[in-house]
């Protein structure tokens, strides 16, 4: 039976060492007041409640907050700005996957291929072979997948597949995902077998059947791997396997169904290639029917994921199929419709992915009108928040004017932070192109000066960063000085400075970083901001701090920040940590995860295409539970 997390603040502190070493990133304020704790490759999160002996964890009840939305959707906006990179266009392949890391950061010493093959991979293999601890194994498997290189004298797929036979469910499912993260064609038939639970798969796991959770992770991974490989034949095969799961009327495992649905949703290939376009259109027709079918209230949280899947497959356009989908989602927003909140939430998300601003296509005006009406009169508050985010994503003058008016009338305690983020999103493309919206920026800046709560202050800092209102940098720096004592607000003020790409902030951020050795969330967010600014000295600070602190919580945050920055000068200290038996097992696992971050072949986290525009509010365990879901593992 699933349990609500009911730990007291003191218990939360005591359970810091129970965190999973490869997941559990911060996704906004938790459902009850617990102290944020550090995890690998993400900001702090509340500790997961231990689950059944299979290794599964209970779903973490997120508070529906703008912070939660931001943490699931932030990655493309946090890319460093350099002469060779700008923030990717919303909906493009780069928005979901990112270009290769070596071309991104001119000011950071990126690892070489020899670093990956001769230094990082051997160190990870040595740790994997030396320690069977769950955290060590899981963190190391993901790290190997990120690097994606064969070990000396062996094959990566063989190393990962060997862990499919472990007596620990979390290790098994992590090994399955790592086969996909590595992004190599050799893993494709293995994932197909695991989803289908065939004889080859049962031999791989050394069991009479493949557990549904393992099959679910294979389903997520199969879609991700097919997308990365970009081979139309493999995409077709992945479609047949995953659609076979969905159309099986006897299949009722919610994790497996969600995994198949999510895997199908990321199959979008080259829209200019006829085979890819044909597959996407066939799949959308089927998913639209599957989404609309009356399968009962119990299945709606699974059906809801078809909305974002359709949005990912189609992107923005005005074809007849696009218009049918838009109309279907608009119909779902009507409160007279008796379907549940999860369906409405996903309909709002999908419209934000599909619709064009009415200035570009008058035929799409009804989409924005429906989203505005949903905000003004909708019964489900989460859908209302997703609706304003969708309007920000759609953009256009009419939505800008409406959002400005709605923001000015909104409650500063509840709706205004969401509307501020929506305004920032709407203004972001123009800012990235060098033409920031002065009206939006000045409004948000004025409110930041007068902000009365840390929540308002945090949202306005991020919104100003998205809007690219560089005149706000001195005020944000002043706010950071004044409110550094509040860890969460200070963290988001740092992020705002990073998004503004103002190098003047580097000295202050560096000083905050030095003072944050006992404050993991602020330390991590400050490091993220310095990474956005391409500061080559941040890595040196963090490596030095590795030797100064022995707290697992702080060590986790430092290692995570090092992994995000990806500077090769951290490799040797991290390798030493993985081999140092005086360190706790969890600390060595953190170091392994950081090594994977440094050696990561991609600029964006491997699960970005699943995370952006996801309906995380449905609380499907393998999708996101605050610890071991596919959206939690970095």
Report on the structure:
The protein is mainly α and 634 residues long. It has a domain of 126 residues. 59% of the residues lie in helices and 1% in strands. The chain has a two-stranded antiparallel sheet with strand order 1-2. Strand 1 and strand 2 form a beta hairpin. Helix 16 runs antiparallel to helix 17, helix 22 packs antiparallel against helix 23 and helix 25 runs parallel beside helix 27. The longest helix is centred in the middle third of the chain and has 19 residues. It is globular and about 60 Å long. The protein starts with 8 loop residues before the first helix and ends in a 23-residue tail after the last helix.
List the keywords.
single chain; 634 residues; mainly alpha; two-stranded antiparallel ribbon; 59% helix; globular; disordered N terminus
Kindly state the number of beta strands. 2
Structural class: mainly alpha
Mean pLDDT across every amino acid position: 86
Poorly predicted segments: 1-19, 31-61, 83-89, 98-107
Largest beta sheet: strand ordering = 1-2
- The percentage helix is 55-70%
Shape: globular
- The helix count comes to 32
Q: How much of the sequence is in beta strands?
A: under 5%
Radius of gyration: 23 Å
Largest sheet, strands/sense/barrel: 2 strands, antiparallel
Terminal-residue CA separation = 27 Å
């Amino acid at each position: 039976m699933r349990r609500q997390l009911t730990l007291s603040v003191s218990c939360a502190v005591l359970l810091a060492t129970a965190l999973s070493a490869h997941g559990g990133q911060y996704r906004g304020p938790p459902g009850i007041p617990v102290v944020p704790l550090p995890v690998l490759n993400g900001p702090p999160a509340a500790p997961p409640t231990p689950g059944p002996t299979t290794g599964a964890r209970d779903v973490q009840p997120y508070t529906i907050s703008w912070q939660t939305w931001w943490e699931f959707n932030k990655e493309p906006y946090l890319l460093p700005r350099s002469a060779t990179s700008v923030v990717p266009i919303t909906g493009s392949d780069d928005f979901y996957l990112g270009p290769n890391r070596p071309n991104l950061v001119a000011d950071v010493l990126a690892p070489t291929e020899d670093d990956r093959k001769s230094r990082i991979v051997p160190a990870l293999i040595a740790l994997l072979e030396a320690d069977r601890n769950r955290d060590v194994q899981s963190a190391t498997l993901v790290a190997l997948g990120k690097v994606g290189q064969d070990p000396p004298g062996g094959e990566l797929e063989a190393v990962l597949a060997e862990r499919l036979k472990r007596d620990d469910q979390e290790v098994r499912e992590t090994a399955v995902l790592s086969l996909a993260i590595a992004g190599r064609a050799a893993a494709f038939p293995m994932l197909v077998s695991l989803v289908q639970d065939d004889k080859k798969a049962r031999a791989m796991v050394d069991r009479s059947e493949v557990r549904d959770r393992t099959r679910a992770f294979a389903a997520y991974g199969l879609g991700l791997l097919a997308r990365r490989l970009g081979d139309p034949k493999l995409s077709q095969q992945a479609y047949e396997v995953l659609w076979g799961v969905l159309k099986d009327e006897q299949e009722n495992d919610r994790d497996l169904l969600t995994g198949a649905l999510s895997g199908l949703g990321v199959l979008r290939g080259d829209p200019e290639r006829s085979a890819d376009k044909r597959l996407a259109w066939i799949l959308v027709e089927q998913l639209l029917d599957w989404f609309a079918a009356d399968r009962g209230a119990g299945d709606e949280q699974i059906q809801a994921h078809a909305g974002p899947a359709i949005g990912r497959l189609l992107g923005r356009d005005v074809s007849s199929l696009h218009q049918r989908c838009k109309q279907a989602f608009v119909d779902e927003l009507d409160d007279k419709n008796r379907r549940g909140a999860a369906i409405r939430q996903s309909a709002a998300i999908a419209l934000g992915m599909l619709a064009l601003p009415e200035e570009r296509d008058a035929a799409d005006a009804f989409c924005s009108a429906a989203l505005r009406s949903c905000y003004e009169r909708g019964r489900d508050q989460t859908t209302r928040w997703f609706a304003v985010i969708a309007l920000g994503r759609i953009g256009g003058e009419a939505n800008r004017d409406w959002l400005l008016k709605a923001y000015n009338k909104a409650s500063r305690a509840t709706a205004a932070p969401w509307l501020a983020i929506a305004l920032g999103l709407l203004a972001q493309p123009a800012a990235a192109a060098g033409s920031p919206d002065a009206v939006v920026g000045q409004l948000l800046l004025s409110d930041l000066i007068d902000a009365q709560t840390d929540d308002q202050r945090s949202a306005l800092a991020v919104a100003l960063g998205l809007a690219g209102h560089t005149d706000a940098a001195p005020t944000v720096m002043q706010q950071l000085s004044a409110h550094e004592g509040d860890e969460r607000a200070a963290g988001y003020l740092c992020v705002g400075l990073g998004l503004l790409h103002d190098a003047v902030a580097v000295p202050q951020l560096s000083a905050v970083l030095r003072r944050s050795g006992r404050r993991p969330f602020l330390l991590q967010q400050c490091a993220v901001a310095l990474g956005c600014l391409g500061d080559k000295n941040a890595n040196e600070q963090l490596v030095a701090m590795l030797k100064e602190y022995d707290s697992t919580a702080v060590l986790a945050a430092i290692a995570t920040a090092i992994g995000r920055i990806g500077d090769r000068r951290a490799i040797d200290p991290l390798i030493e940590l993985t081999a140092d038996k005086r360190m706790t097992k969890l600390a060595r696992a953190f170091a392994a995860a950081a090594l994977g971050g440094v050696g990561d072949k991609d600029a964006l986290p491997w699960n970005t295409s699943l995370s952006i525009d996801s309906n995380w509010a449905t609380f499907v365990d393998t999708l996101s539970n605050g610890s071991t879901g596919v959206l939690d593992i970095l």
